[in-house]
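Possible regression after last week's pipeline update?

I re-ran a chain I had predicted before the update to compare outputs. Posting the input and the new output here so someone can diff against the archived version. Not blocking, just want to make sure nothing changed silently.
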Amino acid sequence: MPDGRLWSASRRAEAQRLIDFLLAAKVPGGWPAGQDFDVPLLALAETTLPKLSRTEMWRLLDRLSKSGEASVDALEVLWIAGRRAPPVQTPEWRFWLPLELAPHPPEQLPLAITMLGTGFALERGESVRSQLAEDLGKLHDYKDRSHFTPTFVTFRSRGAHWTDAWKVAEPAWDAFRGLGAFVFGRGKFRIMGEGPRSAVLHPAWMLTRTEGKSLQFVPFDLDYDPSRRMGGDVAITQEMMQSFQEEAVPLSGQPSRGSTLGVMADCLRLYAQAMDSGQHHSCFLGLWQLAEAITVAEEDGGKTERVVARLSMFIRFPPVGAGSALTYISRKRNRMVHHGVLAMEMEDLNVLQLACERALAWLLIQGQKLPTRLHLREFYRCHSLSEAQLTATAETAALLLEERQRKLVKGL
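New output (post-update):
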């Protein structure tokens, strides 16, 4: 696409029709709400290259409506101007989220950990409530929640609004919570009743503020009843906390495109989301998504047989392994997805959880040795090869690399 253009020549007429329709929909009170506006707005955003989000397109369209112009060219001019404008220093927001963790001894806190480039701090609940005492008293929704907040995690992020700042930090928060759920809660299975399995449930609320603004109470929508969690506050020993810190070290940097670090971050998010779910079928499907991500099978269309073959590497039950059991579970998954049959046994979910947790443990340890998604795919492809086949593959690859290097030298 030529510099300064969002639409190709073949898409400009369509984009103009959408712009005309959307501008005509604006009323004196502002933009309308509902699908009649959202669908064409998304259609307009989806035809751009580079792709713009729905929010980015809405902001551009709003600026266009105030400019007195109405053409594709004028909208592109506004987009170019926005890209060339000097960056504006957005406000820094601080977030406090309660966690049902009880470190023993409590002197372990405060504790600082960096995850995907974002700095997190675990602080004692008493300390946070003391710092915010005056502001907490003004929050009607907060009331007295001291019994439910033994620990807080806090971090900072920038954005024009707290929602923007939250979106920037959300991937790091997901990885942080996913790692906590895994390190502090792996191996905890349900034998009866529904409800979330996670040891580090997503908080039901958080606090946030920026300089010059009042402290805000923000509730979250959860798909579980907090009273149905597996137990009370999770006691965290010094050994557990040390393990958490050690596991976090490889996850401290920002993942590059196509990196295994990015796969690990996605897997931790999927693990936390699945273990949060209050329904068995939702947890089951979430764990299957995790299995697809760990085995990088989604790039092959998420073929169940490939997921089964790769996942079975991590649970080798005597005397014949877990391949048949996982094949049976994969059929359950297909019936859920394709036929809406949600019935399942608790044991099926427990086996899938075990397989995913063992695979995730392997990925967190070995991920540093396999730095890209390509390395992961090649690992899985070569895993079942014999020693002779691996040797032949390595020697052939070495020969090809040598020949390419020789041609490169001759070309110079």
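Follow-up from reviewer: compared with the archived run. The first strand starts at residue 92 and ends at 99. Marking as no regression found.
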